[in-house]
Amino acid sequence: MIAAVDIGGTKIAVGLVDGNGHIVARRESPTDAGRGFNNALERICSALRSAAQNARTEVTGIGIACTGPVDPFAGIIGNVDFLPGWKGFNLVEPLAKEFKVSVAMENDADAAALGEAAWGAGRGKQRFIYLTVSTGIGGGIVLDGKLYRGVEQSHPEIGHHVIDPAGPKCFCGARGCWEALASGPAMVEWVRAHAPSNYKHLPRLDARRIFELME
């Protein structure tokens, strides 16, 4: 059973996936990046063991999808705004050592694009762009059936295209990036600034809740 680890700016999700791409067990916790890389690693290992025990199976391989720039070949996390202090840490080696299986890591949007190519809307397609909207906005591009990594692995950061030069400041330092205007946290900011007062002060307001209210 393949284990999947998704590390985002808001949460870390762990799942066990069968050969057809179906999730048979999952665990989730806040990323809480400020507690440090080692704390997150311990929680990931614990979640993987718990999910495997729940599914009554063994982990035979691990795939990691991590937000921000990563080195997919070395397994090293880059300079990720959402993960302060994690730069330079290797996530692949400790998990491979702990579970004694092969481990691979990709940027989260690239990993999602590969998933769509194998089991989703991109199946059988030679060229497509996958967009992920969460704490940030990312993109994965498949060209001629292969994942596009860019020159010297420079990832196509679709979320940092400037839409409104006078817009809010983004993590990257620019103003009006797509991510600063339409990511999950940006939606919350917009609602708090523009929505009727009975919505502005809800105790729980995130992108998921906004869509629930919209429906």
Give me the secondary-structure topology.
Elements: E1 2-7, E2 11-17, E3 23-30, H1 37-55, E4 61-66, E5 70-71, E6 76-77, H2 92-99, E7 102-107, H3 108-119, E8 128-133, E9 137-143, E10 146-147, H4 178-182, H5 184-194, H6 197-200, H7 207-214
Parallel strand pairs: 1-4, 4-7
Antiparallel strand pairs: 1-2, 2-3, 5-6, 8-9, 9-10
Could you explain the architecture of this structure?
The structure is a single chain. The radius of gyration is 18 Å and the shape is globular. A hairpin with a 3-residue loop joins strand 8 (128-133) and strand 9. The chain is 31% helix and 24% strand. The protein is α+β, with helices and mostly antiparallel strands and 215 residues long. The chain contains seven helices and ten strands. The strands form three sheets. The chain has a five-stranded mixed sheet. Strands 8-9-10 form a three-stranded antiparallel sheet. The chain folds into three domains: 2-108, ATPase, nucleotide binding domain (Nucleotidyltransferase, domain 5), CATH 3.30.420.40; 113-160, no CATH class; 183-214, no CATH class.
